[in-house]
Task: structure prediction
Amino acid sequence: MMVKSYLYEKLDSIVRCKTCMHYCKIKPEKWGICKMRRNENGILKVYNYGMVSSIALDPIEKKPLHNFKPGSSVLSFGSVGCNFRCVFCQNYEISQLPQETGQILGVEKSVSEIVEKAKRYECKSISYTYTEPTIFFELAYDVAKLATSYGIKNNFVTNGFMTPETIKMISPYLDAANVDLKSFRDDFYKTYTKAKLQPVLDSIKLMKELGIWVEVTTLIIPGLNDSDAELKDIANFIAKDVGIDVPWHISRFYPQYKMLDRPPTPVKTLYRAYEIGKEAGLKYVYTGNVFGDPYSHTYCPSCGKIVIERYGFSVSNYKIENGKCSFCKAEIDGVGM
Result:
């Protein structure tokens, strides 16, 4: 289905998209970088509205969101396309499909159908994921607005490369976001994602300022972003510029897509990053893509005891009462804890 973009401006015959930080200036009958938006007679048209490429019921821990409605079910959905060109993308079959084939594929779903599915399965939230939510922002906005009216929470799993206009527009209906902070080096972003670092940092800070619960994920790639110096920069940015209550997920890399020449991240590297995060003062640091790992649990930042025990994406033990540690009564930060 084709609709008019919610965020753009006309510049004579050219239109400027204001949805993501590429701020594409699109000539008549041409497409933006995402290959989802096209200038048609001075109107920016969106071609993927309602076209859902993936939809599933997930545990919220899979997003990963560990301090947001822990142990709950979430309805996850997404569309094809992306505004990044990550050579290590794990969902490249759908994220890069429009760029590689020119196709916009998916099953057409209405806003009400998506929300009704979440209600039917008693999901506590809807997650806009699999690919970058900014790509299907118009659908995401409409679904989030309707879901909110039914008391269903909403969360983005995002690369963070969205404009302040986008964040401010969705903020009344966006309860949480897990933002990929892929590196703390602009050269990394330019080389491996075809984007820039600073807008991602700005998005993380703005989301937090607007009251959106934020968690940050960094995929640790051997030899590229795993130095102590860079890990310290990331941890210090989160602690000093965003907040020590913001969870940091350190995720293990596996060879994917066009990056097949590097080995999986050694677990000892993840543990080193964990210690760096704790030394920076972060209350909640998690390791990901390592099933059964002790650092997948939530530890009370006061007494150090496990208050949420996890195995994989399942919560096996829960020791939080009214948002407080059952052992020492210290507050555990998050939403619906």
User: Anything to note?
Assistant: The first strand starts at residue 3 and ends at 4. The chain has nine helices and 21 strands. The mean pLDDT is 97.
